[in-house]
């Protein structure tokens, strides 16, 4: 049986929600020393849109994490393959993610970044996908909550395919 892609979140809905998030973050961090840290690779499109919609300029940095996932190990081991480079001590840090699934990546990253002693540490996630959550991580800004489904587009991939599509699609059996 084949699969087909169904559009779940349109470009217009994405643009509208990104603008709202940027307004909210702009209000909350006005006059502060904000550093945004994106989790590669999936976040590259959302983060590019978000930072350009903010009412002020921010510093950006990136991390890349490799997860062996809950399916292969009970601990859901996460490794850093590219760490932050900017100093974070006493600064306001906002982690930016494309999607939270089991929560293992963000739980690990939040603990890791807390070790840098930032002034504040919050999370902005575009898609909060709830069906496989194993670790509860507080999400301070959420684009869209989604109950379930395999999502691609707007940075999200399936075996490196479909990342650059401008909408979010759900993959369904035909
Ligand atoms: C995805 C996503 C998150 C992580 C979430 O990245 O971008 O970083 O998985 O999963 P979790 O909540 O179960 O930990 P992925 O490992 O697919 O890498 P990519 O962003 O490079 O595609």
Strands of the biggest beta sheet: in what spatial order? 4-3-2-5-6-7
Tell me the structural class: alpha/beta
Instruction: List SSEs in N-to-C order.
Output: EHEHEHEEHEEEE
Radius of gyration: 16 Å
Q: Proportion of β residues?
A: 35-45%
How many β strands by DSSP?
9
What ranges have pLDDT less than 50 throughout 5 or more consecutive residues?
none
CA-CA gap between termini: 7 Å
- Count of helical stretches: 4
Which bin fits the share of residues in helices? Answer: 10-25%
What is the typical, i.e. mean, pLDDT? 94
Bound molecules: 1-O-pyrophosphono-5-O-phosphono-alpha-D-ribofuranose
* Sheet with most strands: 6 strands, mixed
Shape descriptor reads globular
List keywords for this structure.
single chain, 174 residues, alpha/beta, six-stranded mixed sheet, three-stranded antiparallel sheet, 4 helices, 36% strand, globular, binds 1-O-pyrophosphono-5-O-phosphono-alpha-D-ribofuranose
